[in-house]
Design brief:
Layout lengths: L5 E4 L15 H12 L9 E3 L1 H7 L3 E6 L11 H16 L8 H5 L1 H7 L3 E5 L3 H12 L3 E6 L5 H8 L4 E4 L4 H15 L2 E2 L10 H20 L6 E5 L4 H14 L5 E7 L4 H8 L25 H10 L2 E5 L2 H11 L16 H11 L4 H7 L6 E6 L6 H8 L9
Parallel strand pairs: 3-11, 4-5, 4-7, 5-6, 8-9, 8-11, 9-10
Antiparallel strand pairs: 1-10, 2-3
Helix pairs in contact: 1-9, 3-6, 3-9, 6-7, 9-10, 10-12, 13-14
The structure holds pyridoxal-5'-phosphate (PLP).
Length: 400
């Protein structure tokens, strides 16, 4: 349905390069070196869906498959692990380049640091990454989840030894709860979004996501013309967009941010374009649980407002469509198991390419048979029951 799709464009001066020091290639290479010191590190695959691209009227579609990340089924651990690593390095009085996985898991480090408890709020993936990292480093994690969170996602976090619970709050209020509990008990807040006065850890989290972007950059056989990034608070999108913009300068690909219409805080912020961040409040009831965030990350927005071209707000059925196509691609393309949040941007593009009512968006985005499009499937089937209901039983059918 056309009315459910909205798109706003920022008039970027494309003759000028924009670059971001904290996401430059050299910095991100050193962050990837930190991740390489983890014994479970392996670059995740970049799927090339050439038959699917042809079927949809595009030149190429590349999909970074984060279901393979550290056995955790989502990209998020890259941020939590780097941020916790950086925090502990500071506590040890060591520069990051002297700290690696073996140092951080060692008994000497544990003894020197004593007990540290990390606290966070999460729809699932970030909390699992924080809990996993805390456990690796012999520390504790406390995790608050918004109401309606999937039981499987809670169980996965508890399985990492964290004290995790589902609250009756929405995501942004769960973040405030984590913050106040952290202050009360002296826990270290590891939140994947920034606000004024809380910027170091979210910056490290975004830098950690840089590892995913850098791997994709190195795996791509050709330069993409377009990158589509789904967003909750916009930390992931800011990190990837910032890295690619810094690498390509004024030749950067067209960058588009995709959000669920129930939680389109970046879309609203871009639409207003008045120097303020604009929030969505209430329940934000979307199947894209990882994207159900109403307050943009201040650092992510700072990057996106300089280098993102378009912001799309779209209905839930596009995520379901993305999951079905990625799980059953055309011709000889290999399948990608992608969850609701992971498939959002891909589904959005598939819908735009196949729904004649959206041809104006296709034109504004400049999508055609010459386009080489990069996506990040940021999670696998992190809610298996819902994955089956969508992919097998056709829940949330396409509206064409
Ligand atoms: C699978 C998945 N994709 C994308 C995102 C969006 O990341 P951000 O909140 O940084 O925009 C999330 C956030 O939790 C997620 O879990």
């Amino acid at each position: 349905m056309k009315e459910a799709f909205k798109m706003v464009s920022l008039q970027q001066d494309r003759t000028k390069a924009c670059s971001f020091d904290f996401l430059n290639r050299e910095t991100v290479e050193s962050i990837r070196d930190f991740h390489k010191s983890f014994p479970m590190y392996q670059p995740t695959p970049l799927a090339c869906l050439k038959d699917t691209a042809a079927e949809l009227g595009l030149g190429a579609m590349y999909v970074k498959d984060e279901s393979y990340r550290f056995g955790l089924n989502a990209f998020k651990v890259l941020g939590g692990s780097y941020a916790i690593g950086h925090y502990l390095a500071n506590r040890l009085g060591k520069p990051m380049k002297e700290v690696d996985f073996p140092t951080l898991v060692s008994d000497e480090t544990r003894k020197e640091l004593g007990d540290v408890t990390f606290v966070t709020a999460t729809d699932g993936n970030h909390g699992r990454g924080v809990a996993w990292t805390a456990r690796q480093f012999q520390q504790k994690a406390v995790v608050y989840m918004p109401k309606g969170s999937a039981a499987e996602r809670l169980a996965n976090i508890q399985a990492e030894g964290a004290d995790a619970s589902i609250t009756d709050l929405n995501y942004d209020d769960a973040v405030r709860l984590a913050n106040s509990q952290g202050e009360k008990y002296g826990w270290v807040m590891v939140q994947d979004t920034a606000w004024e006065g809380y910027e170091d850890i979210p910056t490290w989290i975004m830098q950690g996501y840089g590892t995913m972007g850098l791997e994709a950059y190195e795996q791509l056989p050709e330069k993409p013309t377009h990158i589509f990034l789904q967003a909750g608070v916009g930390s992931m999108a800011g990190a990837v967009a910032g890295l690619f913009a810094t690498i390509y300068g004024s030749e950067r690909p067209v960058i588009t941010i995709v959000e669920p219409d129930k939680a389109d805080c970046l879309y609203r912020t871009a639409e207003a374009n008045d120097g303020e961040r604009h929030f969505v409040t209430g329940d934000m009831n979307t199947i894209m649980a990882g994207l159900a965030c109403g307050e943009p990350c201040s650092i992510g927005w700072e990057v996106l407002k300089q280098c993102a071209d378009h912001f799309i707000s779209c209905p839930d059925y596009v995520a379901a469509e993305g999951m079905r196509i990625l799980g059953n691609p055309a011709g000889t393309d290999g399948k990608v198991i992608s969850g609701e949040s992971g498939a959002a941007a891909f589904g959005c593009v598939a819908e735009i390419m196949t729904n004649p009512e959206l041809s104006d968006l296709k034109e504004r985005l400049g999508l055609d048979e010459n386009s080489r499009v990069l996506f990040f499937s940021t999670e696998g089937d992190t809610d298996k029951e819902n994955y089956k209901a969508i992919v097998w039983d056709g829940k949330y059918p396409s509206v064409k």
